[in-house]
Design goal:
Elements lengths: L16 E8 L2 E8 L2 E4 L7 H7 L6 E5 L9 E3 L6 E6 L3 H13 L3 H21 L5 H12 L5 H7 L4 E6 L10 E4 L6 E2 L2 E7 L5 E9 L1 E2 H6 L4 H5 L5 E9 L6 H5 L2 E7 L5 E7 L7 H9 L8 E4 L24 E6 L3 E9 L10 H10 L7
Parallel strand pairs: 6-16, 8-18
Antiparallel strand pairs: 1-2, 1-5, 1-13, 2-3, 3-4, 6-7, 9-12, 10-11, 10-16, 11-13, 14-15, 14-17, 17-18
Helix pairs in contact: 2-3, 2-5
């Protein structure tokens, strides 16, 4: 049976242009959706990175109306391949406060509630009212240090330098419909619904998609030096469903004003809803891209998670314990102009093993005779 991708596309998909990837019987294939019609453009652009670098979005084999879904035997993949996967953190005031809570609670969810009220009262209004890196931010920092309220997380929230980190290895992200993983030894974790900017090697943003920057709050809360263990685990990075390319009808301003909605449906009937309002971001998305580039170069391009406003505090099992994932949770992230990304939660140790790394990817293209199109 053909895979239904229509429910992953935005209502106005026929008016936009989208890029994606799917696992076909032959191997990874690059897809284009134009005027509501699905095309396989792999013979012209064998990698998503190459398609973006060369702006090779047209042509290809017509697969039929997008509403008919993928051909039999095809599975939707993350819409990126050779791009580096970068992420920015603490880009919203609420996320800054929650990171400080994690730090002060030392990863103990039970202590979080009592710390939250105190921090919101003393810190919340301040970091909401200043521009990061401004003179006012410097003055606020001095005042908070004097009160003993300073934190490394507030440094990246209101200081001149944003937090930019490597989220996941090349080719390791999962796509719409795949399982996402949390470590089996984590007891406090959550999804992070985000807009993901897609950039070429020069840092030009060519479009946007959605992402789930799955996070282990207990790990990062114990020590910021555990960030890699908190962020980079098997199936802990979900991106998709498709990249919506910028054009006259969809621009960076649509990203700046995007509302990213999240819902979690638990196997026991639990439901949680949240929203990530990009209009409340502390740093402009293009500033985050510039800081990601810095003195670096990404020859195959990169994608950048923009951070999230959403930090679930709703209790799940017992009062004061807050939220954490359970195996079987269905996580849905959606934005009206970008689409819907849906995944089910499992343990990272139980998630399908990541098999197609860079070497396997290149070998596959060579066997298909399209390595010169990469």
């Amino acid at each position: 049976m053909a895979i239904n991708i229509l429910d992953s596309l935005p209502p106005d998909y026929a008016d936009g242009q989208f890029l994606g990837r799917a696992e076909s019987p032959a191997g990874p294939s690059v897809l284009s959706i134009r005027r509501g019609v699905l095309f396989d453009i792999t013979e012209n652009a064998a990698s998503m990175s190459g398609a973006i670098q060369r702006r090779q979005f047209d042509g290809g084999l017509e697969l039929g109306p997008a509403e008919n879904g993928l051909p039999d035997g095809w599975t939707l993949l993350s819409p990126i391949d050779l791009q580096c996967i970068k992420a920015s953190g603490v880009t919203f005031a609420l996320s800054a406060i929650e990171r400080v809570i994690e730090e002060r609670a030392r990863g103990d969810a039970a202590k979080a509630a009592e710390i939250r009220a105190q921090l919101e009262e003393k810190v919340g209004s301040g970091i909401r009212s200043v521009v990061p890196g401004s003179n006012e931010a410097v003055q606020l920092k001095a005042a908070l240090i004097e009160e003993g309220m300073w934190s490394q997380y507030l440094e990246v929230a209101i200081g001149p330098d944003a937090e930019i980190f490597s989220k996941s290895p090349v080719l390791s992200s999962v796509g719409h419909g795949a399982q996402i993983g949390v470590r089996s030894d984590s007891s406090w974790n959550n999804p992070e619904p985000e807009v993901v900017l897609v950039c070429d090697s020069k840092g030009e943003v060519i479009g946007a998609t959605l992402g789930n920057d799955v996070n282990l709050r207990d790990f990062e809360g114990r020590s910021a030096l555990l960030l890699s263990k908190a962020k980079d685990n098997t199936a802990s990075c979900s991106i998709g469903p498709f990249i919506r390319l910028f054009d006259d009808g969809f621009t960076i301003d649509d990203v700046r004003s995007a509302s990213v909605e999240l819902s979690i449906e638990g196997p026991e009937g639990y439901r949680l809803e949240g929203k990530n309002d990009m209009a409340q971001i502390s740093r402009d998305p293009l500033d985050l891209v510039e800081q990601c580039l810095s003195e670096h170069h990404y020859p195959d391009g990169f994608v950048l998670f923009c951070g999230t406003l959403f930090a679930p505090t709703q209790d799940r099992d017992k009062p004061g314990a807050g939220f954490t994932h359970k195996v079987g949770d269905e996580v849905t992230i959606s934005s009206r102009r970008i689409g819907t990304l849906r995944n089910n939660v499992t343990l990272s140790c139980d998630a399908p093993a990541w098999q197609m790394g860079i070497a396997a990817f290149v070998r596959n293209l060579a066997e298909r005779g399209i390595i010169d199109k990469i």
